[in-house]
Queue: 3 jobs
Job 1
Amino acid sequence: MKRFVPWLAVIIALLIIAAVLRQCRNAGAANYQTAMIMRGPVTQAVTATGTLNPVINVQVGSQVSGNIAKLFADFNSQVKAGQVVAQIDPALFQATVTQAEGDLANAQATLELARVNGKRTQELFAKKTSSQADVDQAMATLHQSEANVKIKQGALDKARADLEHCTITSPIDGVVISRSVDVGQTVAASLQAPIIFAIANDLTKMQIDANVAEADVGVVKIDQNVDFTVDAFPMETFHGKVVQVRNAPITVQNVVTYDTVIGVSNPDLKLKPGMTANVSIIIAHKDDVLQIKNAALRYRPPDATPVETRRYCD
């Protein structure tokens, strides 16, 4: 074994010298790559992300508070304009209407009595058996009774309107995409109208609300073609057109974007509300132009060799 030790050291030294020479030769050589020049299409596009939404999406709420007695629609239900979709328990509102009708009848009776008293007082004043003060008092009472009738009539109209609002109808033809309440649940409309249903008018026509960066919004125009994909169908490309570029800025963590509305046709109902779309807005497109790969345009001359490698080779 002692005889082979010197030879082993010599072999290792030769390998090290060969590796150093190879590295120096590679460092001094030009680093480039060749590619064939071809013809084909070239496209310039602006990329963004957005959310698919129905073009018309109406939130149906309640103007009155109460318990949900009945629901006549559910998720994915087809509804027509004017169709009853929910019913709030009308017992309390019916009682309010009955009370308002009684108050109005009482006010009307008081008005009739005030008219009779006013006429009688005027007749007595004509016969010099009543004073002017009595006539003025009778006329004032008559006018108060007339005003009270109007007040009670307004209260009755309001009570009837509240009773009608217990029956909730669909304002448009469409599909129910969201239901927020169940039978027996109490809705409170004291501060704002609670949402019961969300109804989309036509899911065959949808739109994408895409957030385009401020650096790219200058080249986005109406009627430009758009290609986009969704995660549900990663191998399929859908198409649309830019229909609106809104001027209102959206600022999130000092990043400014602009809402760009893209019209989308959805005849087979594959696309669903809320899907995330990866959007490419086609800015420019040319067919049959010369194409060169970017790798062929990158060249590092020998002088650009890293400093550490040059020092080691020297």
Job 2
Amino acid sequence: MTPKSLSFLLIPLLLACLLPMPYGYYILVRVVATVAFAYIAYQERGNQIMWIFIGLALLFQPLEKIALGRTLWNIVDVAVAVFLVWYGRGRR
């Protein structure tokens, strides 16, 4: 799977977090997002954008919850989804 296609698969997962979902869904998104961001960072090794994906992997990692509150997490989810649209369209 290419990093571009993977980024487009993450977008609906992140935007679904804006809806009232069971807590298990948010944990699943954190695990999937962490693995996906780490994979994309690995694929982008040597490029500056790798550091953004490493940061995203650390932010979404499920081992040590980062308590930002629902509102701030919603903002983060939308911002990351917008970033992924930019990344997916701009990378070939």
Job 3
Amino acid sequence: MKKLIIINGNMGVGKSTICKILYKKMDKSIWLDADWCWMMNPICFTDENMRMIENNITYLLCNYLNNSAYQNVIFSLVIDKEEVFSRYLSKLKDLDYKLVIITITCSEEELKKRLRKRGIEDENFLNSIIHSNLYDEMKSKKIDNTNNSIEESVNKVLEAINN
């Protein structure tokens, strides 16, 4: 059975870095990074743009899940609310797949360090990202990559997918 593997977590936690290696390690896999769908200048979080992005993502996910050449569809994104997952998944309800949701985490100190390395210095913004504990409440497999190498984190994700 096909798998839809959702990798979520805070901005800067390492989702894209992990997925860049993960999809190459998995046989018959495809990776959709939600960041690609938000590459606009300027980024405007309007209702119209939010609907467009959601429609684009679900369109791609449907096509990936319906493609007979692939068995593993990896989707990485920043979502910290179950109801947002529900909106996406409701548009895929007629498709046959096994859902795996994995949340990548790291310590607050490590996340701040990673975000600063990306040039994000605004303390209010950093604190709003870091102190969001909504990921803790999600029904997902949690993987803390604070002290892991990327390879170790990828292996933990693979283990979570296969269990």
